[in-house]
Each structure stands twice: as C-alpha cells, then as structure tokens.
Amino acid sequence: MLLMDSPYALVIEEKLSELVSEEPFVVRLQFEPAGRPESPGDYYLMVKENLCVVCGKKDSYIRKNVIPHEYRKHFPIEMKDHNSHDVLLLCTSCHAISNYYDNHLKQQLAKEFEAPIGSEEGLRLLEDPERRQVRSGARALLNAESLPAHRKEELLQALREFYNTDMVTDEMLQEAASLETRISNENYIPHGLKVVQCHSQGGLRSLMQLERRWRQHFLDSMQPKHLPQQWSVDHNHQKLLRKYGEDLPIKLS
C-alpha cells in the first residue's frame, strides 16, 4: 500500500500524476516536464566530446559562455532553461582569443545603447568638482606660509560656504584636507543590465535577437570546426515563441 505520508502520495493527491503500479512503483505524470527534448535529434540528446570546439584540442580546455554572464544573468527566467547550449569547451589559447573578440562586441554594444563599460566602482562613483576644490584648498591652507593674504581669504571663504559656517576651525581644515571627492552616481546602471533593458523594450523577440547576435558573433569570430551537432544560433527560439508567445510580459532578473 502507498503510505499517505510519503512524498509520492502528495504528488498523486495533488493530481500531478496517476499511480500505475506500486511494485515496482510507477506513476504517469499529468503534466509536461520542463526541458523535455522535443525530438530524437534534440541538441541535449547528442553525445558531446570533451575537446575544444574551435581547434579540436583535447586537453586543457575551459568552459566558454557564448552569451557572457553579465548579459545572461539579467535575462527573464523563461530564457534561462537549458543554458548548457551556450556553454562550450575551448582550449586556453582559443578561450583567450575569444575573450579578445568579445570585448570588441561589448564596446560596440556600449556605443549603441549608451552603456559604458568599466569597473563597477569607477562608474558607480563620480568625481565632485566642488569637493575636490575644497580638499585642494584645505591642503593649501595647511601650508599657508607662502600664500598671499587675498588667496588665503579666497580659500577660507570657499570652506566657510562648503561647511555653512562663519569660522573655519583647525578640525574642519584637517577634515577638509582628507575629504572624499567621489559621490554616488544615482543614474548608474551596469553595462550588461542596460543592454538587456534596452532589448527588453522590444519584447521577447528583441531579447532573442541579442542572444542570436552573441551566438553569431562566436561563429564569425572563432569559426569553430567542432561544434556539437544541432548547435544553432536560433536554439530554443521557436519553442519559446510557441510556449509563451511574442507578447510575454518581460521581467528581467
């Protein structure tokens, strides 16, 4: 007898499956499992060799994300099934060359979508000219012996205005001399997110075009000679359109 406190009983009770037999335990699912291969020729059923897909070298290979993670991580969840299609094996030399070419496309995307590339800290923070001027003035005042009186007064006035005070104390002067001149850039959006956001405005098809662009870029730049059978620049696109339709509400990750 099937125990009602078993995990299988709950599945049957929720009508997600139908009990076929208890010995051996067999159930028939009442739903279509996510990710089921669509045909005997499905990409995920193909045997894949452990070799560089570009040159065929069989050792010292590294996983290559054809669609870089900085873009893929922001894709809607519906496009994240079966990411392994876009993870290929490259030898260390081909991997380095591929990254070089990837930077070219990233720079192109940066221009097209006004999405600057750089270190996150460098883009998240902006240099504030006023704070820089205050710090420079305070450092000059700490060595004010050679400063003309009128110049000294100009620098002191700038400090009074910055601190909104009538008198500049020694403590203020020391604080100003080590003032942080960078401020938070409230308009900062990471490069990858900005590019994906711009494509998401065109809906599911536009995001698939970005995915296809990166796949085609890999083919054009590296000309791989050992790709797995059924690997395609349009992989999963028709399945997505059949399942969700072109008007799928886009929710970025």
TrEMBL record:
<dbReference type="GO" id="GO:0004527">
    <property type="term" value="F:exonuclease activity"/>
</dbReference>
<keyword id="KW-0269">Exonuclease</keyword>
<keyword id="KW-0378">Hydrolase</keyword>
<keyword id="KW-0540">Nuclease</keyword>
<protein>
    <submittedName>
        <fullName>Exonuclease 3'-5' domain-containing protein 2</fullName>
    </submittedName>
</protein>
